[in-house]
Every structure is written in C-alpha cells, then in structure tokens.
Design goal:
Largest sheet: 8 strands, mixed
Organism: Paenibacillus mellifer
Number of helices: 9
Shape: globular
Helix content: 25-40%
Structural class: alpha/beta
Low-confidence stretches: none
Strand order of the largest sheet: 1-2-4-3-5-6-7-10
CATH topology: Rossmann fold
Radius of gyration: 17 Å
Keywords: Hydrolase
Mean pLDDT: 96
GO molecular function, one term: hydrolase activity
Oligomer: single chain
CATH class: Alpha Beta
Strand content: 15-25%
Protein name: Alpha/beta hydrolase-fold protein
Number of strands: 10
Number of domains: 1
C-alpha cells in the first residue's frame, strides 16, 4: 500500500454553538475508508483535536490500520481547543473546566450521535488526550461512567489536584487505560510549573490500579512532544479497537 492511499482521507469540519462555553467549538470528524452511514462504528474522541490530526497524524494512522492491518473501521472526532484557555478548560482547577466537560458530554457527543452512526456503548467510545488532554479525559470518564470506559493517555499531566480527586474514588474497575510517558519527561516546564511527568504518571497508575482499573502502562525513551506520541498512537488505537 502506497503512502498516497493513506493520505486519501475524509475529514469533515463541523462547528457547534456551545451554550456552556458561550462560543463556537470546532470539530474534525474522520470517516473511515468504505464509510457507510447504514453501518455503526466505534468512535475515538480526541482532545486537542487539531494537534491529533496535524501532528499526531491520527487519520493517516487510522487509514493504514484499517486498510493494511484489518482493523474494524472507526470514526475519529477531534475537538479543537483555544490554546490560550486550554489549561482553564482541561485542568480540574481551571475556571472553564465545568463548562468544557458539560459541553463535551451534553453538546458535542449528542451532536455527533445525531449526525454520525457512532456506537453509544461506553466500550465503543474511546477518549484520547496528550498531557492535560489526557487528564481531562480521565476526569470525564470518572464523572460519566455511563458514557466512557476507555482512555488513551499520552504523557498525562496528572498534577496534585487530579491525583487527589483520583485518590477519593473507591471503585474504578470500569476503566481501562493505555498510558505512556517518555523517560525524558522528568523535568518538564508547563504554564503552571515544572514537573516530573514520569513520577506523576507512576502515581496515577498506582492509584488507578488500586481502585480496580485496568492499566496498560509503558515508559519509553521520549520527550513531551508529538514526535514521541505520534509513534505510539497506532499501538494505543489497536489496544482498544
């Protein structure tokens, strides 16, 4: 299969008006090869949607996995974010966190389910995110177990507030996570401080497993960059689909 086959992708741009956020929110929807609206498809919802498509090359990976590896076709929804308010929306201490998570569950998912033939069982929805995008995915799943059970966590930014929320949970046996972190992420500076992401991910993994979650956990050579995560995305997708 030549590269050009993978690059023939159907990506639809959508926009919704969010009453919770008080603004428009843009979505990218990848439709698999052979898409047929009378069928039904598993769905991956990605935080940082623009980056998952542009830097993670998730649509190209999906085409290759479906065309070459025989993976069941699936739909991808990338939810775009304004980088200027990303921490406010993705971190549980952010002032837009509640509005964003409500937008996600009460506006974005119903919009997609009205317009695309995605499956509606928690086991057929995957949440994916990098850094704080992984964190908000975990919080979404913990707040909405009736909606979500599977999370792709690429170098999750599991800061102290998130670990504390995690520690207060008693039963997370419904959760299944694919977690990866780069060994060179032990001194990474963000807009809120400098963190050891390796240590934060180890703590999150322990807390999750102690509460019954299933965790496929990996530490590999890598930095807090899409160059690292892009290479790991296919394994993460195959793990769940």
């Amino acid at each position: 299969m030549t590269d050009s086959n993978y690059l023939k992708r159907t990506i639809i741009k959508e926009e919704i008006q969010s009453q919770f956020l008080g603004e428009k929110r843009y979505l990218r929807v990848y439709l698999p090869p052979g898409y047929n609206e009378i069928l039904s498809y598993p769905v991956i919802y990605c935080q940082d949607g623009e980056e998952f498509f542009n830097f993670g090359r998730i649509a190209t990976h999906a085409n290759r996995l479906i065309l070459d590896e025989g993976l069941e076709p699936f739909i991808i929804v990338g939810v775009e974010v304004n980088v200027a308010v990303r921490t406010e929306e993705y971190a549980p201490f952010g002032n837009r966190f509640d509005a964003y998570t409500r937008c996600f569950t009460e506006e974005i998912i119903p919009f997609i389910e009205r317009n695309y033939p995605v499956r509606r069982e928690p086991a057929e929805r995957v949440l994916a995110g990098d850094s704080l995008g992984a964190t908000v995915s975990l919080h979404l799943a913990m707040k909405n177990p009736e909606l979500f059970s599977k999370i792709i966590s690429l170098s999750g930014a599991y800061y102290e507030p998130s670990l504390n929320i995690l520690a207060q949970e008693t039963d997370l046996s419904y959760l299944s996570l694919f977690m990866i972190v780069g060994l060179q992420e032990d001194h990474y500076t963000t807009d809120t401080g400098t963190y050891n992401f390796v240590e934060l991910n180890r703590k999150a993994k322990s807390l999750l497993e102690e509460r019954g979650a299933q965790v496929a956990y990996f530490e590999k050579d890598g930095k807090h960059l899409w160059g690292f995560w892009q290479q790991e995305l296919p394994d993460a997708i195959v793990h769940f689909l």
